[in-house]
Amino acid sequence: MLMDILIVLAVALEAYLLGSIDTGILVSRLVYHDDVRNHGSGAAGMTNMLRTFGKKAAAMTAAGDVLKGILAVCIGRWLFTFLSGEVFSQYLGVYLAGILAVVGHLKPLYFGFKGGKGVLVAGGAILAVQPVLFPCLFVIFLACLIPTGMVSLGSIVMAVCYPFLTLGYGLLTGLPAGDLAVTTIGAAIMAAMVFYMHRSNLQRIREGKEYRFGRKGQDKK
């Protein structure tokens, strides 16, 4: 039992430390000799990298953020193969890793606990945990982004839909009750974190001041 607890703690630690490697901050400092958090929205995510440094910077940031979400989940899944019994659901390992990777991105240990908003990290984690749901979530994201140009709105709606899609898929595939509870609660926690980190974006959307992708001449608030 002690070994199982240590494995759970190891999963949480590796995911948080991986999540704390903030791609946007590293790219802005190493490539552009600046800190993206000093510009635009103050976040270290893809959108702020795009509006501050351009498409190349945004692409590097997106790739790094998605990759660390995938890696955290894959390592968590591997570590859970060493569990001695069936006390913990196997899904606990992947969702714990996904959640802590997002936490690391939001509050990076190496960068003064000020990072990005975690959407791409969560996307990478979802891709590793439940790849079957990723295309549906991506379509939802695009359905919000294309008509409005607001990445934040797409991210928020996608996050809200994720727990419901997870629950529906679990019921459809006949997932055992314990695993269904873990996956649904895990998805809800990830969604809640993404939603919470976008509260300032929601305020700007209500005020009509939110950044719209592809619209030139906007005031960078």
UniProtKB/TrEMBL annotation:
To which protein family does this belong? Belongs to the PlsY family.
Substrates-to-products reaction catalysed: an acyl phosphate + sn-glycerol 3-phosphate = a 1-acyl-sn-glycero-3-phosphate + phosphate
Broadest EC class? transferase
The transmembrane residues are 57-80, 92-113, 119-146, 153-172, 178-197
Q: What is this protein called?
A: Glycerol-3-phosphate acyltransferase
Q: Chief subcellular site?
A: membrane
Q: By its UniProt entry, which NCBIfam families does this protein fall under? A: glycerol-3-phosphate 1-O-acyltransferase PlsY
Name the domain of life: Bacteria
Tell me the membrane topology, using the record's own terms: Multi-pass membrane protein
In the record, biological process GO terms are: phospholipid biosynthetic process
- Give the protein's biological function: Catalyzes the transfer of an acyl group from acyl-phosphate (acyl-PO(4)) to glycerol-3-phosphate (G3P) to form lysophosphatidic acid (LPA). This enzyme utilizes acyl-phosphate as fatty acyl donor, but not acyl-CoA or acyl-ACP.
Q: Which gene encodes it?
A: plsY
- UniProt keyword list: Acyltransferase, Cell membrane, Lipid biosynthesis, Lipid metabolism, Membrane, Phospholipid biosynthesis, Phospholipid metabolism, Transferase, Transmembrane, Transmembrane helix
> What HAMAP family does this protein's entry cite?
PlsY
Can you say where in the cell this protein is located? Cell membrane
